[in-house]
From TrEMBL:
Pfam families reported for this sequence: A_deaminase
Keyword ATP-binding attributed: no
Record-annotated Adenosine deaminase domain positions: 8-355
Residues forming coiled coils: none
InterPro entries referenced in this protein's UniProt entry, alphabetically: A_deaminase_dom (IPR001365), Ado/ade_deaminase (IPR006330), Metal_Hydrolase (IPR032466)
Similarity remark: Belongs to the metallo-dependent hydrolases superfamily. Adenosine and AMP deaminases family.
Required co-factors: Zn(2+)
GO biological process, one term: nucleotide metabolic process
Source species: Populus trichocarpa
Identification of the protein by name: Adenosine deaminase domain-containing protein
Lineage, highest ranks first: Eukaryota, Viridiplantae, Streptophyta, Embryophyta, Tracheophyta
């Protein structure tokens, strides 16, 4: 197995509906095609298209949501996505998703999230820990020890924590509803809030009350920041002091300076930035500057399904493009532990996982 696959990795920026397998999407499209809800041949072409602009990506998401937004499917894709990350040795995953409401099928934001949690419970291929220990009761215990005892063999283990996304199309009230839901679901592994969705839609001030409320309540916050040129937003987003930001592409000089001073960790999504042409070529990617400045950063997939990538592939790509060796890439993965939205106990366990992998991989 290649080292970028076998080494443990931390994934902190993965959108649930962007991480679905192509095969699952095609299967769902075929079924809806047979029911006459969509025209399968049109949809197949859209799903299999390889390079998409950022605008086309958001059109694809509208289609994906038609295919996936019912409770059973949400449960299925959650299970598959977790198992896919675990199979490439992701040992800690923060999965983000936008709670959706669809009255016509009796879906509320709450029931959508229950379906997600059901998907976590349905994971069997690996040991999953998604309930923070302080909330762990006998009932919710789906722990490692139980799985070990069942078949006598040690399975792979993955920690999963959930972030609820506020979609930039939403109103202040809808965003606050999402934050309240996150607070209600803390005992089911929800640890924070993400602001995402089409970056040319909506305004920072619309989401600020909800984000402030989340911050006051002690939820962790990560923001999609500087994905497109928007002179009005980057500065207030950095002033807000989120625990992490995603992308950080279109920054002015002063904003780079502020970012570096604040030491806010950046979730870097190389393939996503290249495929959407947000960055024209990998050799000018800001990864290099941030890495050389020892700025906190973590490699992530963004949408492994939509961009046909995997976290292992992102490590391989960074290694090749920036001339970093196995040891440097391993250290880069390990530093991700510092930026996770989980407590010291989880961090300590991950440190031990990396230490033991370092021995096995001769690092
Ligand atoms: P979901 O939240 O439905 O599970 O995952 C898909 C959603 O995540 C998209 O509809 C969009 O709101 C958000 N998303 C996925 N990829 C990106 C991205 O690259 N940039 C931004 N801003 N949002 C994204």
């Amino acid at each position: 197995m290649e080292w970028w696959v076998s080494m443990p990795k931390i994934e902190l920026h993965a959108h649930l509906n962007g991480s679905i397998r192509d095969s699952t999407l095609l299967e769902l499209a075929r079924v809806l095609g047979e029911k006459g809800v969509i025209v399968f041949s049109d949809v197949e072409h859209v799903i299999m298209k390889n390079d998409r602009s950022l605008g086309e990506v958001f059109k694809l998401f509208d289609l994906i949501h038609i295919l996936t937004t019912d409770h059973k499917t949400v449960t299925r894709i959650t299970k598959e996505v977790v198992e896919d990350f675990a199979s490439e040795n992701v040992v800690y995953l923060e999965l983000r998703t936008t709670p959706k409401k669809n009255d016509s099928i009796g879906m509320s934001k709450h029931s959508y999230m229950e379906a997600v949690v059901e998907g976590l419970r349905a994971v069997t291929a690996v040991d999953i820990d998604f309930v923070p220990h302080k909330f762990n009761t006998q009932d919710s215990l789906n722990s490692i020890a139980m799985n070990d005892a069942c078949d006598g063999t040690k399975k792979k283990k993955i920690y999963v924590r959930l972030l609820l996304s506020i979609d930039r199309r939403e109103t202040t009230e809808a965003a606050i509803e999402t934050v309240k839901l996150a607070l209600e679901m803390r005992d089911l592994g929800v640890v924070g809030i993400d602001l995402s969705g089409n970056p040319v839609v909506g305004e920072w001030n619309t989401f600020l009350p909800a984000l402030k409320f989340a911050q006051e309540q002690g939820l962790y916050i990560t923001l999609h920041c500087g994905e497109v040129l928007n002179c009005q937003e980057v500065q207030p987003m950095l002033d807000f002091l989120p625990q992490r930001i995603g992308h950080a592409i279109f920054f002015e000089e002063e904003e780079w300076r502020q970012l570096k001073t604040s030491k806010i960790p950046v979730e870097i999504c190389l393939t996503s930035n290249i495929k959407t042409e947000s960055i024209s070529s990998i050799d000018i990617h800001h990864f290099v500057d941030l890495y050389n400045a020892k700025h906190p950063l973590v490699l992530c997939t963004d949408d492994a399904g939509v961009f046909s990538t995997s976290l292992s592939n992102e490590y391989k790509l960074a290694s090749t493009a920036f001339g970093l060796g196995k040891k440097e890439m391993f250290e880069l993965a390990r530093t991700g532990i510092e930026f996770i939205f989980a407590g010291d106990e989880v961090k300590q366990d991950l440190v031990e996982t990396f230490d033991s992998a370092a021995k096995k991989l001769n690092l």
